[in-house]
Amino acid sequence: MIGILNIGLGNVQSVYNAVYENGYDPVFVDSPQQIDDLSHLILPGVGNFNAVISGLHQLNFVDAIQNFIKENKPTLGICLGMQLLATTGQEGGTSQGLDSIPASITKIETQAEFRIPHVGWNEVKYSNPHPIFDNIKDQRDFYFVHSYHMQCIDQKNIIATTNYGKQLVCAVANKNVVGVQFHPEKSQKNGMLLLENFCQWDGQC
Amino acid sequence: MKKCTACNLPETYETIEFDENGVCNICRQKSFKDQKIDWETRAQALGELIEKHRGKYEYDCILPFSGGKDSTYTLWYLIKHFNIRPLVVQFNHGFMRDTLLENNIRTFKKLGVDVISFTPNWKLVKRLMLEALIRKGDFCWHCHTGIFSYPMHIAIKYQVPLIFWGEPSSEYTAYYDYADDEVEHVDETRFNRFVNLGITAPDMYNMIKDDYQCDPRELTPYTYPNIRDLKKLKYQSVCLGSYIPWDVKANTKIIQDELGWRGDQVEGMPWQEYSYEKIECSMQGMRDYIKYLKRGYSRVSQMTALDLRNERISKEYADQLIANYEGKKPPSLSLFLEYLGLTESEFNLIVAKTVVPPFEPDFKGMPYADKTHDFNRWYREDENDRGIIFKSKP
What we know:
The complex is a heterodimer.
Chain A: E1 2-5, H1 13-21, E2 27-29, E3 40-43, H2 49-58, H3 61-70, E4 75-78, H4 80-83, E5 86-89, E6 95-96, E7 101-107, E8 118-126, E9 140-146, E10 148-152, E11 158-163, E12 167-174, E13 177-180, H5 188-200
Parallel strand pairs in A: 1-2, 1-3, 3-4, 4-13, 5-7
Antiparallel strand pairs in A: 5-6, 7-10, 8-9, 8-11, 11-12, 12-13
Chain B: H1 25-35, H2 39-53, E1 61-64, H3 69-82, E2 86-91, H4 98-111, E3 114-118, H5 122-136, H6 141-158, E4 162-165, H7 188-195, H8 201-208, H9 227-232, E5 236-239, H10 248-259, H11 284-295, H12 299-309, H13 315-325, H14 333-340, H15 344-352
Parallel strand pairs in B: 1-2, 2-3, 4-5
Helix pairs in contact in B: 3-10, 12-13
């Protein structure tokens, strides 16, 4: 069973719809007890790092998610959901993340003519192969909306980048955990394929 | 008009582009297909695909079937080489010809297969033909959409995920090219890209509902199924021609020898040279005639282009066939006008609005092409049934 974390922050319906259209019957996860029943977990995007991580602590989600990840079950973070996988985040004040990817989240600093937030379609270039990219060609466009980005400590966790005045990390992986900065649920055919690939993934690389 | 220096196709051909030598992109695809594709790897992938599905459902695959050379070859090939158990699905567009029906019966019996044949409501078909003719100058919408969506509904009903089509579209057009898309998936994207002429079934319902008594459910055979239902099935809808190199002439020879498949006369075509192409439909001559009026070429150009690309005929011979056979009215024009309740001048006015520049058709003074041997057996409506039954205006 595929679960989509829903703690009342951000738009989760479009992620639900995209997974549903792919032929699955996902469930919204609003209590940590539900996590045990899942085969796959999706942490959707939209929100403020500090506010969301505080919310996860209040609802006792942090341990539950970290245990789920430790059990080698496939976990996907989208946008802010990807950022939450990092060790620390700067948005809304420095706070600890889920620490599945050794990385920090900082505000995008790029050339002056590139406006922040980075909004719209941008090309995703693979740096390492990964099962979530199966049947999706390299250098295809995906849809982005973000002001903060991930800076990885270990380059081997980076599986794709995008150019927005400078190279930004836009997809990361660590064993059974994968994160994408763009929104596959808003990225048409290739986004749908990426979500399908995730739903079929056994968490092995 | 500008024409490809290699195959003769003109600039009004859909998806055509010319390179600096005046050679078209479809010719370039052909050289890619011949030189760059690793057909051995593809053949291996075909075997793996079939084994993945074999024996798991009531049928190993769905095989959409018109009875033309491509679907007949596909059926023969998969049975002969893989001993596959298919459910053959036939969408009857309403114009199947005698020789084709005889071929089908012989093929089904010789190969020993289960077959479903579906024929949609003829009265609705006529209304759909008129609407598509007016909007797109292509009256075949019901056939394009029915052929590609109906078998998908059957795949869902029978829960059979593998669907085998025959020839990939990259043989003829560049909506997909051999170079970019490794295997052409016959899916909703392709359906909406060119198959349905940009008109979905719900669009079509809304276009006709005000003057034609119709229940939206009647459009189901022309509606692509829900993508979720197909995804849930983990469907794989592919062309055999993506896995083995497609050689029309060699394939035709095989089905003639092995299955006794027979070609036929097609209006407006040289019967000696091209007896194997598009024999399925008694309105084929009309389709080619409209193509000529819109784009200044017809099927003769397309067939000679294929032969030129395969270096089977000379340019001079191709030019001669085109000069002798193109630009003639098919005798089926009279039947077509009766079906749709149009006069010839009304028909000409409709088609004139869909002409592709720079071509300018001359509607006058075109001679008739020869009648085919079976012309007198083609469906002719009683006087009372002719035309479309419109709702009475309030």
